[in-house]
Amino acid sequence: MKYSKPLLVGAFALASTALPMSHAATTTNTMAVSLTVVGTCAVATTPMVFGPSSSTISSDVDATSTLEVVCTTGTAYDITMDIGTGAGASYAARQLTNASDSTTVNYNLYTDPGYAVVWDDDNTKVTGTGDNTAQDFTVYGRVPSGQTASQGDFTDTIVVTLTF
Q1: Which of 54, 128, 148, 160 is least buried, going by the fewest C-beta atoms within 10 A?
Q2: Which of 108, 138, 134 is nearest to 43 (CA)?
Q3: 39: helix, coil or strand?
Q4: SS3 9
Q5: pTM score
Q6: What are the C-alpha distances in Å from 122 to residues 90, 91, 135?
Q7: Contacts of 101 (CB under 8 A, 6+ apart)
């Protein structure tokens, strides 16, 4: 016996719709989703330039510099500074060194415009909390009077550490 194609197709369509699919049970569960935001910070510095001076420093020579700190909102941080690269430098007297003859001139860095609090890496930390914007801090520098210096360019390098 031969079947015609329309009859066969019709029988298949009838069979597939005649048997509805049914599910016996369902179950659910939860999936945890999380995000960890890591606090980050960056610090930028501007040079401190005391400017020209005579060989006899008869009055204090002052200058400023700016530190710019950007930290993730809510990130607490501390800013410290080392003593620099001068051979006999200490927090009592950092030293600018003349590259041509290795003579030095004492100076220091302060956290306040009254030049009362030396900025160091242990006892005097400047602290803050990030807010995702640039936060500026002024560094106050002073070369005290009463020193003599040889002619030339005096330099030092300070390591600024931002701990967060």
Answers
A1: 54
A2: 134
A3: coil
A4: helix
A5: 0.78
A6: 12, 10, 22
A7: 150, 152
Structure tokens at 34: 């999380």
Of 69, 83, 75, nearest in space to 123 by CA:
83
Give the single-character DSSP code of 88. T
Distance CA 102, CA 155 (A): 10
Rounded Cα gap, residues 107 and 143, in angstroms: 4
For 28-85, write each residue's pLDDT tens digit: 999 999 998 888 999 999 999 998 888 999 999 999 999 999 999 999 999 999 999 9
Q: What is the pLDDT of residues 106-140, one digit of tens each?
A: 999 999 999 999 998 877 889 999 999 999 999 99
Structure tokens at 70: 């950007």
Which residue has tokens 């009077």?
145
Closest by CA to 111, choosing from 64, 77, 43, is 64
